[in-house]
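By way of example, what follows is a protein record of this kind.
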Amino acid sequence: MRELTIGKNDAGQRLDRFVGKSLPLLPPALLQKYIRLKRIKLNGKGAKREVKLQLGDTLQLYINDEFFDKPSDENIFLTIATPQIDAVYEDEHILLINKRAGMVVHDDDHNTVGTLVHHLHAYLYQKKEWNPRDEQSFTPALCNRIDRNTSGIVMAAKTAEALRILNEKIRDHEVEKQYLCITVGKPTPPNGTIRGFLRKDDMKKQVTFHKKPVPNGKTAITHYRTVKTSDKLSLVECTLETGRTHQIRVSMAEIGCPLLGDGKYGHGATNRQYNETKQALCAYKLTFTFPTDGGVLSYLKGKTFTVANVPFVETYFG
């Protein structure tokens, strides 16, 4: 329990607004709940949220110590009252999350609050599976990333050992990822492999496709299979042999079949026709191939996990 005394500059404020300003890490919904449960007392008694504080009043706050810290990159997850975690699979070591399109995976240049990693930390904290105050160095982490407007499976490690193994398996190409996408046009041939070199322009945040090696270009190999076609759209499954920035989006555009809704590499007129503002791309399937020892994660060998429902598939090919 901590106690605060109301000074002259604090007097006259509503109870809930004063506490909200004093504890910026405490989510508003949780603040109101604590007032109702009388975990926030005024002069030793429960009080209404709208009561006006008077000079000399004392507040007794029965709230976890971490909510009294100053906001920082490490504790901003505390402000999330309801974590948005759609778990495809979870056990004591890992969590596979179906990220929604529009959510940023990691912190970006704009100091975005509410990234997937923030929601992960809030989720595990609220389940009492992790508390930064109990750890010397480890923080649960995401092992792969996908674009803001791409949906699908993101791998999270809940333990340091799982993080080490997953990072190793990803580096050694022992985790196979497959994507579903909707393209504008029908790929020709319907099944094939797109090989090339991708060069990223960090200033423009854009990637260009090259058929021959170029300075700073990275090899990109994408296997694709047409699943269905309808009108001018096609449902295509892509398997990545390499994992480059915007690889599927750029590669499919290169063969004349850009992704529906892709504002960077796609057809603006077609996107507007279908009223799509996010690329129709989902990392829908993940397989742990593990041809080598998986350590504490060996039980995952050969297992495949799939997103149960891909909204854009239901919309156009349901």
Remarks:
- Residues 175-317 form a domain with the Pseudouridine synthase fold (CATH 3.30.2350.10).
- The chain has three domains: 2-68, 76-171, 175-317.
- The mean pLDDT is 94.
